[in-house]
Amino acid sequence: MSRASRSARIYRLAVGTAAMLLGVLLLTLPALAQGQGNPPDVECEGLLFLVKVDQDGDFQEGTDDVVSVTIAQDGQSADWTSTIGIDRVVAKFGNDDNVYNLDEALAGSVATNGQNAISHITFCYDVDESPSPSPEPSPSPSPEPSPSPSPEPSPSPSPEVEATVEATETPTEAATVLDVVLERPEVEADELPATGTSSLLASLLGAGSLGFGGLLLAAESRLRRREEG
Fold it and tell me: How far apart are CA 31 and CA 199, in angstroms?
């Protein structure tokens, strides 16, 4: 076998093996990417992250023992209860998610699009901040009047002069309580960035790479048997 033929055979083997490995990677990529989704700080943008549960409803991260989740047998819906008022629930399934904006809810349910099972559920909440009332100022004590000295008696009797001092109370200013209204930003479902890759495209590319690699390896095998025969 000439050196050129040997080099061509090695090239075909390398290309065929690489194509098959690429096909396997592309076929497994959707499964690896499925369910990862956005991090909790993105899913709870504008609110506080409470807890994240997995596809079985078990605790994954956040604050435990505050939310109870029951996943349906088909994995496409779930019911939940909470001891803390919930303002947003994000249900992740496949490469999509459903966002539920709530108002201090203590129970609810989520569902998928009917094609993929739930991969995780994220719960978000908000803290109501009400202004504390301002303390009323205490009145300052009025100074006690000091008696004016009586004049010494003169030879002719004079009537005594009584000094009258009226105490004036300092008016107390009423405390003013400011009403503060906190506006919670509304985050729509379509504002969350899309995650994941196109499963169909990756599967097609993977299948094509596997087929191409298989053809190259099969052609090389037939050429080798022909040379040996």
Answer: 8
Cα(108)–Cα(161) distance, integer angstroms: 84
Q: Is residue 190 a part of any domain in this protein?
A: no
Q: How many other C-beta atoms can be found within 10 angstroms of the C-beta atom of residue 88?
A: 26
pTM for the full model? 0.48
Mean pLDDT of the region 222-229 = 75
- Which element (helix H / strand E) includes 123? strand 118-125
All residues at 6 or more sequence positions from 51 whose CB lies less than 8 Å from its CB, including other chains? 59, 60, 61, 62, 63, 64, 66, 67, 122, 123
Question: What are the φ and ψ backbone dihedral angles of 11, each rounded to 5 degrees?
Answer: -65, -45
pLDDT band at 210 (very low <50, low <70, confident <90, very high): confident
User: pLDDT tens digits, residue range 171-190?
Assistant: 444 434 444 444 444 544 44
Structural domain span for residue 11: 3-129+198-228
- The tally of domains found in the chain comes to 1
Indicate the length of the chain as a whole number. Answer: 229
In a domain, 66, yes or no: yes
- Residues forming a β-bridge with 118: 93
Q: What is the mean pLDDT of residues 41-67?
A: 93
Cα 135 to Cα 168: distance, rounded to the nearest angstrom: 23
